[in-house]
Design brief:
The protein is mainly alpha-helical and 992 residues long. Strands 1, 2, 3, 4 and 5 form a five-stranded mixed beta sheet that branches. Strands 6, 7, 8, 9 and 10 form a five-stranded mixed beta sheet that branches. Helix 9 (122-129) crosses helix 11 (160-185), helix 21 packs across helix 23 and helix 33 packs antiparallel against helix 34. The termini are far apart.
Length: 992
């Protein structure tokens, strides 16, 4: 008897053997069924070797309770093979323990230990299911066969690949048995048709899970002399019955769902098609993912000859899939969509679908198979691990990478098996309960600290997958141009070109030359490039012009390769490399700006480096740069250099915000993107004008100009809505200082204007800033610069309604602030006339608008796609808003703004336009503005229409959020948006 307060020796032994509830275990060992062997060290040792000793002991007691005699207990004690198998299963699966309790004699399926039992195939499983005469019996027989697979698995007799293959073979035998039951139930249907069952997915790939949907496709043909339509109806009835036999729940549960949704047209398509119908669909309508799915197609049941005909007919189409436009992008988009659809709460627990999960390995392998399998039949395996081994053997994947992925995949799949085996439920979520994690860890051989060790190993393997799955596609491209160790397989030049073409490179030979120049050699620089390039190549491939991205990267690297910080920045600053890849492959403007001063790449690695700087900070820096320079030309060169850098900052931020990154999704607020660009470009142009004005005055007059001088921004400049390629619309105003003759003041002012325009347009590495003063009184016929009094006299006597409209956007941007303020006070009564506009003025504005639309539309342009003059374009929206400002600005203070969107919102708040109409106009204006910005970013020159060249059009689409192959959708959406906006304009502006 144990003394009070002391543990029994049995209690201590149970703890040492891994029991978590020794007290309960003691009680179970004292039960009548086990009392005779409760102290048997062999039994305790065997229980302690299981994944969950408590669970194994509980299951054993329940199983013994159901036995009619002592045969099982005697065999367990005497026969180690049975003991290990049975207790191993009971400690890993409550579902199989419950099956054994319901069917007490099924333990005998584990007693056999002949060599032929070690690796059974389809024939052995068919014999095991042969006596099942109905669906319930089939379920019982299936579980009995599953019991033997699980026993070999948990005891380590079979490895992961062998277990998955056995599960697929058992599924094959089960489908055949279910089809036989369906045929026996409808002999007339069976006689009327030929029906082939094609396994897909993991079953087709010979790598099935314990609990998984079994994906199938059905092919039907008429039997000799039968009508095809009747035969298809018969085949559909048989297929449907077979699916129900496997999927429906009975008193013995279900086997697994049979899923036929991978068939042509999915759920919307017929369940059974003829071979010719399948072929016609795949030749004409199939998407890329459907060919990817066919990699695993394998005839398993029914008419196997018909099944082989199906596979033979479709095989050539599978190996042509990589030639499809946007092939790689389609596959990667499919992968991203899978991740995006995972509930947020499950992402970190997803073993299969999450980042670094099983699907990452499978997608990467299948992508490489589709690219290279056309010319290398050794890659055409439906089994992931076999295909990975073949890819490594052929040099399509680095051996070290393949070895790491193989190890990670086996570990993750083993985890998945253990999770599913417990309750035989379809799940890919890692449990959160420590008891579950402990059982899984112990089942995988992690005995010291199962929970902690399991978490660590899982995260380590997931990290390997996450790091390698995309590089797997790109790293061998570097090996193809690098010096490898003797005996190391490499990607052939032809295979490398093949892969680059699949990635979207138009000139794979040039791309290989760039890779060789960047990554060859033994220098530290080349070593870092070899680390960076696999990732960069993936980001370039995600753009509309991978060739340009790689070429631009080579140019930047050539320019900065000897600086110590450049490659370190890309390697160590997480966002810098991806940001650079996006910028270099998004079009011409940003790379051109960067090439003129490559050191600006440092902005891409600074957390705040892409944030726009305010006008005051820009003006302060520009004035300081001007002050340090010798002479006006050098000073303005310095000012233009600041402008170039800030244009790059703005363009880079715009591109990255529009594309998004792996860690930061694309900016959802289109208005924020547009206002950020418009505000930043307007501010830096204003700072450039201020610096240029200072340089010109200092060079000729010293500190003080003989006349006060101010620059008024007009148009999009005054509205803070400039695009990358916009001219600076301005008015020049001066006022002679006391004692200075008006003639002298006028000459000085005109000289300032002429010199500013000249200096800002001198050919150089920096983009010019074109000054447009055509909105001045009398237009091109009037003087470039006037005194404030002259403006007042002109506007009082001669001002036309279009000039009042133009003045709505007037804002001081540089020069004498007091003079600018007085100019604004002068024009306010013109642009916000008391009591609004008269009918004649309104008619004149409408006439001018109609005339502009008819006369200024470029010949040959598609009006519906013209962002400025087309339906719902910038002109439509801005003239509508400006008419409301002219009519109501005197009474509504909110309308007294130079900014279009601000005025539109004020008009809506004042009830001058309905909320829905305001939203339609706002959407159209934002879209047109973004298209203009995109065109400039992509082509490097301004334009008001969409590009006609396919790659440029695709790049505009990427900027606007359209994936590869969706340029047509973008144009349709633009026309639709413009059409809706034009309807609002017809009502509000034209009064229709």
């Amino acid at each position: 008897m144990t003394a009070p307060g002391r543990r029994s020796s049995t209690f201590s032994r149970l703890l040492r053997h891994g029991f978590t509830d020794p007290s309960a275990a003691e009680r179970l060992l004292e039960s009548p069924e086990l009392s005779a062997v409760r102290d048997d060290p062999v039994l305790l040792e065997a229980l302690g070797a299981t994944a969950d000793p408590d669970l194994a002991l509980d299951g054993l007691v329940h199983l013994l309770e159901a036995q009619p005699d002592r045969e099982l207990l005697d065999t367990v004690i005497a026969a180690k093979p049975l003991r290990d198998r049975l207790l191993g299963v009971l400690g890993a699966s409550t579902a199989l323990a419950e099956h054994l309790a319901r069917h007490p004699r099924d333990w005998q399926a584990l007693a056999m230990y002949e060599p032929r039992d070690l690796h059974p195939g389809v024939e052995e499983f068919e014999r095991g299911l042969a006596e099942a005469a109905d669906p319930v019996a089939l379920r019982v027989a299936y579980r009995r066969c599953l019991l033997s697979i699980a026993a070999r698995d948990v005891c380590g007799t079979t490895d992961l690949a062998e277990t998955a293959a056995e599960l697929a073979d058992l599924a094959t035998a089960t489908l055949r048995a279910a089809l036989a039951l369906a045929r026996a139930a409808a002999p007339a249907d069976a006689a009327a048709c030929r029906l082939a069952v094609i396994a897909m997915g993991k079953c087709g790939g010979h790598e099935l899970n314990y609990v998984s949907d079994v994906d199938v496709i059905f092919v039907g043909e008429a039997a000799d002399g039968a009508d095809e339509q009747k035969a298809l109806r018969a085949a559909t009835a048989l297929a449907s019955h077979m699916m129900r036999i496997c999927s429906e729940t009975t008193v013995e549960g279900s086997i697994w769902p049979v899923d036929a949704n991978l068939r042509p047209e999915g759920r919307n398509g017929p369940l059974v098609r003829t071979l010719s119908s399948h072929l016609a669909y795949y030749q004409r309508w199939a998407k890329t993912w459907e060919f990817q799915a066919l990699l695993k197609a394998r005839p398993v049941a029914g008419d196997l000859d018909l099944g082989e005909e199906y596979v033979t007919a479709l095989e050539p189409l599978v190996w042509k899939a990589a030639e499809r436009e946007n092939f790689v992008a389609d596959v990667q988009k499919m992968r991203r969509r899978v991740i995006e659809n995972i509930p947020v709460a499950e992402v970190d627990r997803q073993l299969k679908l999450g980042p670094g999960g099983l699907r990452d390995v499978e997608f990467a392998v299948q992508l490489l198979q589709l690219v290279h399998g056309k010319h290398d039949a050794s890659l055409r395996s439906g089994t992931t691990l076999d295909a990975l081994q073949a890819l490594a053997a052929g040099g399509y994947v680095g051996r070290a990478d393949a070895s790491q992925l193989d190890e990670a995949y086996r570990f993750l799949r083993s985890m998945e098996h253990r999770i599913q085996l417990f309750r035989l439920r379809r799940t890919h979520l890692v449990p959160e309960d420590d008891a579950d994690l402990r059982r899984i860890g112990r089942s995988l051989g992690l005995r010291a600290d199962p929970v902690v060790d399991l978490q660590r190993e899982w995260k380590r393997h997931a990290g390997v997958v996450r790091r390698l799955h995309e590089k797997l596609f790109y790293r061998p491209l570097l090996d193809a141009v690098a010096q490898l160790a003797p005996g190391e397989a490499r990607l052939s030049a032809g295979a490398a070109r093949e892969r680059l073409v699949a990635l979207g490179y138009a000139d794979p030979a040039a791309a290989l030359r760039h890779l060789e120049a960047l990554a060859s050699g033994v220098s530290r620089k080349a070593a870092i490039q070899r680390t960076l390039l696999p990732v960069l190549l993936g980001w370039f491939a995600d753009s509309a012009d991978p060739d340009a991205g790689l070429l631009n990267f080579r140019k930047v690297s050539d320019a900065l390769g000897k600086t110590p910080w450049y490659l370190r920045l890309l390697r160590d600053e997480g966002a810098a490399a991806e940001n650079l890849a996006r910028v270099l492959s998004a079009g011409r403007l940003a790379p051109d700006l960067l090439m003129r001063a490559p050191e600006a790449v440092a902005l891409l690695g600074d957390d705040r480096g892409l944030e726009p700087r305010g006008r005051a900070a820009l003006e302060q820096e520009t004035i300081a740069a001007v002050s340090r320079a010798d002479g006006a030309e050098q000073a303005v060169t310095a000012a233009r250099g600041v402008r170039r850098r800030e244009l790059f900052r703005t363009a880079a931020a715009d591109i990255i915000g529009s594309y998004g990154t792996e860690t930061q999704p694309a900016e959802a607020d289109q208005g924020a993107l547009v206002e950020r660009v418009g505000g930043a470009v307007s501010d830096l142009n204003a700072a450039t004008l201020a610096g240029t004005l200072r340089a010109v005055v200092r060079d000729t007059w010293g500190d003080t100009l003989p006349t006060r001088f101010t620059v008024i921004g007009m148009g999009r400049f005054g509205g803070h809505e400039l695009g990358y390629g916009s001219d600076a619309d301005v008015l020049f105003v001066h006022e002679p200082r006391a004692g200075v003759p008006e003639q002298s003041a006028a000459e000085a002012a005109n000289k300032v204007v002429a010199e500013m325009r000249r200096l800002l347009q001198i050919p150089s590495a920096d983009p010019p800033l074109l000054i447009d003063a055509d909105l001045r009184p009398e237009g091109k016929s009037g003087p470039l610069v006037r005194t404030l009094n002259s403006y007042e006299a002109y506007y009082r006597r001669w001002s036309l309604v279009w000039e009042s409209q133009a003045l709505l956007r007037a804002e001081v941007v540089a020069g004498d602030e007091d003079l600018g303020r007085r100019f604004i006070e002068l024009i306010d009564p013109l642009r916000y006339p008391a009591e609004g506009l008269g009918e004649d003025a309104v008619r004149e504005i409408r006439r001018l608008k109609a005339r502009m639309e008819s006369e200024r539309m470029p010949r040959g342009a598609d009006p519906k796609l013209h962002t400025k003059l087309g339906p719902g374009g910038l002109s439509d929206v801005e003239w509508t808003v400006q008419l409301l400002q002219l009519q109501h600005g005197w009474a509504e203070p909110g309308l007294r703004t130079t900014r279009t969107r601000e005025a539109l919102a004020a008009a809506c708040a004042a009830g001058l336009i309905g909320a829905e109409d305001a939203a339609i106009l706002d959407e159209a204006w934002l879209l047109a503005t973004r298209v203009r910005n995109a065109v400039m970013l992509v082509r490097g020159r301004a334009g008001d229409t969409f590009p006609t060249e396919a790659r440029e059009l695709a790049a505009v689409g990427r900027y606007l959020g359209y994936g590869p192959g969706h340029a047509g959708d973008m144009l349709d959406a633009y026309r639709r948006t413009g059409r809706r906006a034009r309807g609002v304009v017809e009502t509000l502006f034209y009064g229709a």
